[in-house]
Amino acid sequence: GTYTVTSSANGCTSAASSSVTVNAQPATPAQPTLSTVTQPTCSTATGSFTITNYSASNTYTFSPTGPTVSGTGVVTASAGTYSVTASANGCTSAASSSVTVFNQICAVNDSAGPISGVSGGNVGINVFSNDILNGVILSSSDVTLTPTTNGPLTVNSDGTVTIASNTPGGTYTVDYTICENANLSNCDTATVTIIVETPPSVTIGDATITEGGVLSFPVSLSNPSSRDITVTLGFTNVTTTDGDYTTTPVVVTFLAGATTATASVPTTEDTIAEPTETFTVSITTSTGPVGAITAT
Question: Any residues with CB less than 8 A from the CB of 290 and at least 6 apart, and which?
Answer without folding.
Answer: 199, 200, 201, 202, 229, 231, 283
